[in-house]
Amino acid sequence: MKFEAVTIKDIAKALGLSTSTVSRALRDSYEISEDTKKLVKEYAASINYRPNPIALSLKEKRSRSIGVVVCEIANSFFSQIINGIESIAYDQGYNVTISQSHESFEREVLDVSHMASRSIDGLLISVSAETKNFEHLQKLHAQGLPIVFFDRIVPDIETHKVTTDNAAGAHAATRHLLENGYRRIAHLGAAEYMTITQERLRGYKNALAEKQIPFDTSLVKHCTHGGMLEKEVQAALDALLALPEKPDAILAAADKLTTNCLRYLQKNGIKVPDDIALAGFSNSDLTELLHPPLTVVKQPAFEIGRSATEMLLQLIEARRPVTEFAHTVLPAELVIRESSLKK
Question: What PANTHER family does the record tag this protein with (predicted)?
């Protein structure tokens, strides 16, 4: 049997009222008596009536929905961001449509195109690791679609952006390793053209400079897909461990890089931290349950989601064109555990 949603006509027929009276009562119009409003609203609730979103969007010229594109929902960082997004969006009467790029540029273009064709009111996006060409986003932005970037941003598109203080997070982790006596600290990063990779590398280099330790390019390796492909991590670590003077510590500058780095070291019988210390970026609660528990830089993911959504809704609901934009930078937190401590 085909599902048929309850309509205003059904309520009007059941209560012996006109459709216009029911419509006004549901909108809490001053033209309708309080008794009639109460009757209509209680009956509507009893039969699980919901307004038709298509009809509402035609009337308001809005879909009251926003699109969200992330690389991977299973990544704890992005799942926490989505929780933050939904905590604001639903309270403000907006639905959320989520797509995953899986770090693919082609997938991202398809996701964004599909969302735009479904008449979303605005877009929240963290660009994929493969994305170097931003034309698909620039066109939509030029056409007037409100867009807010979070985490992985596009500097050349003038709009609101929300990020973590990546440089400070990497600096704190590197300084911690240096203060614990490590001197050959490798840096394992994502695609080198990404903003987060550049910022985290800068924080690492600044911490070395403060301790007057020369920057060694051979200790820096990049994984284009940010650790999602285990073979990339393996190739990078193979190269590091083949150096005449091996690293005594590793800073993994992305969530998947951190966990796959630990997996590689354990698989190859390399003890952490006895043989090599390890610190990384991760928002997973499981990092404290691993053996050894991991030292991590945690990002304020939930707050990133909330802040980005508030900014997007401001753009959507603005009555005049917005010409001034903010780049919100939230602090990271270093959580020190056994993986980076000398015994």
Answer: HTH-TYPE TRANSCRIPTIONAL REGULATOR GALS, LACI-RELATED TRANSCRIPTIONAL REPRESSOR
pTM across the whole model = 0.82
Q: Residue 93 CB: number of other CB atoms within 10 A?
A: 10
pLDDT at 4: 56
Determine the pLDDT at residue 343. 73
Neighbours of 89 (CB within 10 A): 25
Distance of CA 114 to the CA centre of its chain: 19
> What integer pLDDT is reported at residue 211 of this predicted model?
95
Report the run of H or E that residue 187 belongs to, with start and end: strand 185-189
Domains 64-164+301-330 and 166-298+334-340 share a fold: yes
Longest dimension (CA), the chain: 88
Would you say 115 and 123 are in contact if contact means Cβ atoms under 8 Å apart? yes
Q: What is the CA radius of gyration of the chain?
A: 25
Per-residue tokens: 124: 């929240």
Domain spanning 166-298+334-340: CATH superfamily: Response regulator (3.40.50.2300)
Tell me the two tokens of residue 64.
Answer: 């009251």
- In this prediction, residues 233-253 reach a mean pLDDT of 97
What is the CB neighbour count within 10 angstroms for residue 299?
A: 26
From the CB of residue 252, how many other CB atoms can be counted at a distance below 10 Å? 32
State which H helix or E strand residue 279 sits in.
Answer: strand 277-281
Is-contact 93 64, C-beta < 8 A?
Answer: yes
Residues 6+ apart with CB under 8 A from 77: 151, 255, 282, 283, 299, 301
Pairing of strands 295-298, 333-335: antiparallel
- Between the alpha carbon of residue 25 and those of residues 20, 30, 107, 201, 310, the distances in Å are 8, 9, 45, 59, 30
pLDDT above 80 for 269: yes
- Whether the per-residue pLDDT at 124 is higher than 70: the answer is yes
**Residue 245 burial (10 A CB sphere; 0-12, 13-18, 19+):** exposed
| pLDDT band per the 50, 70, 90 thresholds, residue 58 | very low
Mean pLDDT value across the chain: 92
Give the number of other Cβ atoms within 10 Å of residue 195's Cβ: 17
pLDDT given for residue 260 in this prediction? 95
CATH class of 64-164+301-330: alpha beta
